[in-house]
Design brief:
Elements lengths: L16 H15 L1 H9 L4 H27 L12
Length: 84
């Protein structure tokens, strides 16, 4: 089966149920099982996935540029919002 993401933990004799559940949740989160489930929950057209990826890259580059300017002390004015 594709994507066999099965998270399991061994519960110790002296371990409480709360601590075991906490460890299990952390393991599921680290393995990305929930994230993968949410991504596969609905079909996304490849063109939309590419578009979303490009937008994210654009946002990251813009953010890095603003942070670099801020470090240099060249804080530019806040961009004015356009209201249509």
């Amino acid at each position: 089966m594709e994507g066999d993401n099965i998270a399991y933990i061994k519960v110790g004799d002296q371990e409480t149920l709360d601590s075991a559940l906490r460890r299990f949740k952390k393991k599921v989160e680290n393995e990305g099982i929930i994230k993968e489930f949410r991504e596969r929950q609905y079909f996304t057209k490849p063109s939309l996935a590419t578009h979303k990826h490009d937008r994210e890259l654009e946002h990251k580059t813009k953010r890095k540029k603003l942070l670099a300017e801020k470090k240099q002390g060249n804080q530019s004015k806040k961009p004015q919002r356009r209201y249509n």
